[in-house]
């Protein structure tokens, strides 16, 4: 059975600035609890990643492999977790220009855990873990000069 949750945040930054932080894996440790990142196969985490590239995130001893599956410039970033405790896991970050400027960020996740009956626990944990990520992304994009 699939589970899902949705988080939202608002940034003073433009949708393009928020999108730029999402597609550059090297920025993630600056605005999230992720300790380090590398690109599977040795790519440059500071460069803009493309569809099909897999990022390897490390947080403490936990390692997560996430493949970029959808990019719509300034509007949508989609990824799938390709390792770990999930049969399926899809995250999507939707960006929209806010009515008075800035960006509305909507981060949604749908997943199916491998372990039966663990879905509610995973939903609680992931939403709690990812709330600061959405807020961190919002603040980071607003504080980063556009020409970076």
Name a few traits of the molecule:
single chain; 148 residues; seven-stranded antiparallel sheet; 3 helices; 7 strands; globular
Summarize the structure.
By secondary structure, the chain is an alpha+beta fold.
Tell me, briefly, the overall form.
globular
% residues in beta strands: 35-45%
Number of strands: 7
Radius of gyration: 15 Å
Per DSSP, the total helix count is: 3
Distance between the termini: 42 Å
- The share of residues in helices is 25-40%
Please characterize this protein's 3D structure:
The protein has helices at 15-23, 28-31, 119-143; strands at residues 3-11, 36-39, 54-59, 62-72, 76-81, 86-97, 103-113. With 148 residues, it is of the alpha+beta class. The protein has a 7-stranded antiparallel sheet, with helices on one face. Strand 3 and strand 4 form a beta hairpin. The protein is globular. The termini are far apart. The mean pLDDT is 95.
């Amino acid at each position: 059975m699939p589970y899902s949750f949705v988080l939202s945040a608002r940034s003073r930054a433009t949708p393009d600035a928020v999108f730029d932080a999402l597609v550059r894996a090297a920025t993630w440790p600056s605005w999230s609890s992720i300790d380090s990142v590398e690109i599977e196969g040795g790519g440059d985490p500071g460069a803009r990643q493309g569809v099909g590239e897999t990022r390897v995130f490390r947080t403490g001893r936990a390692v997560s492999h996430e493949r970029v599956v959808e990019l719509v410039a300034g509007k949508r970033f989609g990824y799938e977790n390709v390792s770990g405790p999930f049969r399926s896991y899809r995250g999507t970050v939707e960006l929209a220009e806010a009515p008075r400027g800035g960006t509305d960020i909507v981060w949604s996740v749908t997943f199916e855990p491998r372990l039966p009956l663990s879905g509610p626990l995973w939903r609680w944990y992931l939403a709690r873990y990812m709330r600061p990520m959405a807020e961190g992304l919002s603040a980071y994009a607003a504080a980063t000069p556009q020409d970076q």
